[in-house]
Each structure stands twice: as C-alpha cells, then as structure tokens.
Fold this protein.
Amino acid sequence: MMMSEPRSPGVPPAVHPDTLSSTVEMDPVEYTLRKRLPRKLPKRRNDVYVNMKTDFRAQLARCQKLLEGGGHREICVHGLGLAINRAINIALQLQASSQGALQLATNTSTVELVDDLEPEDPDETGEPMTRTRNNSAIHIKVFYPDPQ
C-alpha cells in the first residue's frame, strides 16, 4: 500500500486574486456586527420557513397541520444555513409519519446575505460599512403524488 506524500509545509494555500485587492483592514473590536434579515421568498400559505429558535416539535406540528388539516397537497419547507439540517429532519419526519405516502423533492441554492458593521464609538472616525457573504439554503417540496 502506497502512502501519498504530505504537502510541502512552505507552500501557501491558493488565494483568489480578487480577495487580495478588496481586503479592508479593520479591527473587529471597534465594530459591531449587525446581521440583516435574509431576503425571503414569496410567502405563500404552504411555505414553512424553518429556523433554529422555534421548537422543532412546534415546526413539525405546523407542517403536519398544513398537510392534514389545511387542505394542502404540498408544502415547501425552507431552511437557511444552520437550519438546513432541521429542515431536512422535518421533511423526513413528515415522510416517515405518512408511511411513505408523501414524497420529497429537494433543491439547494446560495443566498447572498448583507451584514452591517457599525463603529462602536460614534466619536471615532470609523464609518459604517457593509459586507456581503453567501450562505447555503435548501427548499424541500413535501407532497402527495398524484394517484395513478
């Protein structure tokens, strides 16, 4: 069995050239990070936006209520960032509790988020800044298939 050779310790990691020119030196102690809310998809009655603050069972019960008592044949479960795992778990729990009657169709996307960096000391010369970052998102359609 051959072992691969370790990387050379003197070789720096690859850096994208655009990141070097746009890097701004700032002291994180001097700025307060304010995360803006993400842009939401259109809110329909059968859309469920999953987050990490609301109790899992409450979110699962809301989805079950929409499918069973709400008269919807499909719902769309959305999760962003850390809530992706929770969105997947909710969809799988719904499918398992229906004894396989429900089907899932999953799409992933990348969402651009904007953060505001505000100076902590208003007397300082620091100006408020914004920065953008990307975050992963998942959209799971949970539906009853059309009868054949």
Notes: DSSP finds three helices and five strands in the chain.
